[in-house]
Amino acid sequence: MQKIAIETCGLTRRFGAQLAVNEVNLAVPEASIYGFLGPNGAGKTTTIRMLLGLIRPNAGEVKLFGEPFAEKRLALLRRVGALVETPSLYSHLTGRENLEVTRRLIGAERKLIDRALDIVRLSADAHRRVREYSLGMRQRLSLALALLNNPDLLILDEPANGLDPAGIHEMRDLIRRLASEFGITIFLSSHLLSEVEQVANHIGIIHQGKLVFQGTLAELQAERHEHLTIGVTQPDQAATCLTAAGWSVKRLNDGLLGVAATTREAAVRINSLLVGQRLDVFHIALTQASLEDIFLNLTNNSAEREAA
User: pLDDT tens track of the chain, all 308 residues?
Assistant: First the structure.
C-alpha cells in the first residue's frame, strides 16, 4: 500500500455560525503532487491552517506521515515546509540575508541556504536586495525559505497567485522538480484547475467546506463523458422537440445544446429529426467535457444539494 503523507478524518472548523470546513477526509499519498482545488472561499486556506496547527479544528483529526499531529506537533512540523498567503520578506536585505535570518530562527545548517537558493534558481541573484526582485523572484525566495528545513512535505497555498505567465511557468517547473528530483510530497491549493492539472497527479475538490471529489487525475479525467453538441437557430424549439423524442438535453454556453448521445447514427437521427421540424441546424459535433466542465459540475451539484 502507498504510504500517506497527510490524512484527515472528519476535519471540521466553524467561525461562529459559519461552517468553513465540513468533515473533510483527506488522503494525500507520499511523493505525490496533490492539487487541492476549490473556488475562493471554499475552505482551502482554513484547511491548510489546520494542517499546520495555526488554528485548531472544532472536530476531527489530522495525521502527518501516519502520526497524530496533536500529539507530535513539533516533531512533525520539522518535516514540513509551507508557503501560505503572502510571506514576510525583508526588502532592505538581500535574498541570502533573508534566508540567514530564518535559518537562525529554525536552527538549520548553513549549507542549506546554498541548497535552497540552487533549487529555486536564485543563486546568481542572492546578493541583490529583495526590493529589486520581481514578484516571481520574491515568490521563489519565499519557497526557498520553506525549503530551509529540508522538508519531506511542502504545503503551498495559491503559489502562482498574482504571477505573470512567465512566473507561473517558472513556479510550475519548480513544483515538478521538487517532486521528481527530491521526492518531496507537495500539497498545492489553487482555484485554477487549468494550472493544477499540469502538475498534479492527485486531486481533491472542496466546495462550501465539503470535499466533493478525491482521487487521481486519471480518475477525474475519466469523468469526461462524451456528448453531442448541437447548434440550432431555434434552441428552445429544438430542446422541446428532442426531449419529446426521448433524448436527454442540456443547455450549454453560447446557446448550444448538449445531447446524451455518442454515436454517428444518433447524430444522423437527431439531425434528421430537427431538419424535419424545419429547424435550422448549423453545428453538430461529438464533444468531450473539459476538466473545467467537470469541476463546475461537481461544485454546482454540491451547491444544489446544500440548497435542497
Answer: 789 999 999 999 999 999 999 999 999 999 999 999 998 899 999 999 999 999 999 999 999 999 999 999 999 999 999 998 777 899 999 999 999 999 999 999 999 999 999 999 999 999 999 999 999 999 999 999 999 999 999 999 999 888 888 889 999 999 999 999 999 999 999 988 888 889 999 999 999 999 999 999 989 887 777 789 999 999 999 999 999 999 999 888 788 999 988 888 999 999 999 999 999 999 999 887 667 777 777 777 655 555 44
Q: Domain containing 71: what range? A: 4-221
> What are the cell numbers at 142?
519565499
Same domain, 24 and 141: yes
CATH code (residue 161): 3.40.50.300
CA–centroid distance for 227 within its chain? 26
Dig out the grid coordinates for 37 from the structure: 482545488
CB of 139 within 8 A of CB of 163?
A: yes
